[in-house]
């Protein structure tokens, strides 16, 4: 299952539904999550500190956390294009050509 959630703050019901989904998946299978927010900033998206702490507790247990720094692929490409570089054409942003 592949889903993408954009960064729109959840209403309480949405945060609770996501928590329930992840709680059901907890220790039953792999979950991959990418985010550009530090864990300390997740409460901004979920709006509830206790819910966010419980969610992060389940997500981070047995987790491999990869923290990266620097510009994203899209940001690097936009900077090159703005500086007069040649825009590369491709079907999607996956980097596969």
Uncertain residue segments: none
| SSE-based structural type | mainly alpha
Largest sheet: none
Number of helices: 4
Helix content: 40-55%
Q: How would you state the average pLDDT, rounded?
A: 77
Q: Could you characterize the architecture of this molecule?
A:
The protein has 97 residues and is mainly α. The chain has one domain. It has four helices and no strands. α1 (12-25) runs parallel beside α3. The mean pLDDT is 77.
List the helices and strands and how they pair.
Blueprint: H1 12-25, H2 42-46, H3 49-60, H4 73-82
Helix pairs in contact: 1-3
List keywords for this structure.
97 residues, mainly alpha, 4 helices, 42% helix, elongated
Give a nutshell description of this structure.
This protein has helices at 12-25, 42-46, 49-60, 73-82. By secondary structure, the chain is mainly alpha-helical.
């Amino acid at each position: 299952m592949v889903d993408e959630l954009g960064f729109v703050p959840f209403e309480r019901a949405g945060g609770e539904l996501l928590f329930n989904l992840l709680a059901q998946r907890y220790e039953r299978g792999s979950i991959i999550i990418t985010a550009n927010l530090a864990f300390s900033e997740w409460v901004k998206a979920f709006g509830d500190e206790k819910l966010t702490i419980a969610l992060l507790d389940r997500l981070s247990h047995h987790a491999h956390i990869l923290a990266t720094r620097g510009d994203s692929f899209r940001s690097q490409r936009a900077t090159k294009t703005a500086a007069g570089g040649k825009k590369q054409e491709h079907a999607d942003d996956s980097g596969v050509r």
